[in-house]
Amino acid sequence: MDRPLTEHEQQIRQTGAGRGARLKASKVPGVLLSVIVVAGLIGLIAFGALPRLVQQQKLSKETHELVTQAPSVSVVVAQGAPGVEEFSLPGTTEPIQDAPIYARVNGYLRNRYANIGDIVKAGQLLADIDTPELDKQVQGAESSVEQAKAALDNSREAVSKAQADQITAAANVRKAKTDLQYYALEIERYKKLAGQGAVSMEDRDTRQQAYNGGISSLDAMQSAEKSAEAAANSAKAAVHVAQAAMDAAQAQHDQYNATRSFKKVTAPFAGIVTKRNVDAGALITSGSSSSTNTLLFEVAKTDVVRVFAYVPEQYIPYIHKGEEVFLRFQEYPGHDFTGTVSNVSGGVDPATKTLQVEIHVPNSDHKLLPGMYVQARFQAPSQVKLPIVPSTTLQTRPDGSFMYTVDGHHIVHVHKVEIGRDLGGQLEIAGGIKVGDKVIISPSDQIQDGKLVLPVLAPLAPPTVSATKAAK
Q: What is the dotted CATH code of the domain comprising 302-381?
């Protein structure tokens, strides 16, 4: 229970209550004035801002209605070309060396020593052919050589005899000349003695007759010498004819013998047998030009394979001998093989405007087989980074090519564009739009310049270059 207050305490409480009442009474006019001032300011602000607020709300409502009523369009952002363009070209693998093997002789296949898939060495025996007709021809050629050799020997003996006869005739001529000189001296001496009467006229006439006989004998010996010389020349000519016949017979024999060496079918170089079309007993026809001739084997060297690619004209400046190329095969997905440009054609094909390039690919493990389809990927630095957009953004009209872009206020703008290159599913734009522009995909006829639209950003694949369809 509370105790009762004393008289002094009651006086103090009354004094304090009176003082508080006076203080409250003095504060009421100041607070009321502040409230009135604040209320006035709020009223003034509300009176000035309210129209603007109403107008802004109305504009926002109208804008929202326009946006919700605007057609939606798919847009992509034009991207710049990559610093290094990669373009892909199709090709087919071929062995670095390949040789179809046909028979060079007619006959029957006696034995076959190799089959498809066999790895062979250069000069290794693949098969041999039985050639009875050719063997007979070789024997006949050998007989002809022997006959020609005998005829040559006879001709040479005839030359030796003719030369001996020529020597004898020459000696007889010399003797006849000596006898004639003696007879000439005798006749001169006897003419003088007969004039002096030392000898009879009969002796003089006898010496004259001997001189005349010496002249006749010399003429005969000279004729015999000429005959012997002619016979020697004829014999020598016969030797040349016999030698020519001998050479012809020997050449024929050598030809038949060389042809017979083709009875043995050998590998022209080290490689792998990729085809085998014959078995023992098969009839073999020589040659390769006729369709009736049988391909015996085909040998390919595949430790290195080559790929021929045809580079479009705009990429020719970037193709150089020794350049690295990446190759992708369907048989080995996800794995790239590396090749090197080994040869570059010296001219552009006037029909296709492409440059033939040969690529060599190491293949020591023989994983790559001849005839495989391949995509060869080349890389070229970008000279000018032009914008690249999908080909579906292009609109073609009689007066040119156009594209539609959307600005930051969702307003459509129409641009006449210049196409740089057709990259297949993408286009390189040389003029009309720039990198970063939002370009409408497949714009409809309702989309016009200045129209408000609702853009929806579509994903865009990174810019790529496919040289399979690339063209200026």
A: 2.40.30.170
